Amino acid sequence: MSHKVEQHSQIGPAFETATTEPIIPAAQGRTLNWLLLSEATILIDHDVQKARERLERAIKKAWLVGPPGLPQPALDPNVPLRIQVTSLPGWRLEGRAWLDDPVLHWEASEIECLCKPWTPLSKTLASVATTQFRVKIEIWAEDLVRLWGSDNQWAALQRVGH
Fold this sequence. Notes:
The protein has helices at residues 37-44, 48-60, 97-100, 141-148, 151-159, and strands at residues 3-8, 15-20, 24-25, 31-32, 34-35, 63-64, 82-86, 91-93, 104-105, 110-117, 131-140. It is of the alpha+beta class. It has one domain. The radius of gyration is 16 Å and the shape is globular.
């Protein structure tokens, strides 16, 4: 099944249209695309601390995919980890500085980030203060296998049951 998805980035003016195919089939006809931090950690390494360190380093360089969206296929081997950070309703993510030293809440799959109240870009005021929030973060499942995995991890991804 092919899906037409428009991606509207809350980070910048990037707009793109992508035709995507579900990548990882899951049980009961569901598709695994985005994983919680805890699910990603388990798949990276059996040593939780080592897996968290690897994932945190990758998140610092990650590409943000605006929700709701699916990333383009990673045809270039230099494509970094892709993440989706979902801000609270009425708020938009502010910049990327908060990714330089991410504060992750592993069990809740949240990251602390700076947000501003949502306003149309034409009316954005620089004087509006940013506020720090804990918001949902998800990891693109395909990237785990591409960056750290082996063929055996495809089977593990299917068993996650997301």
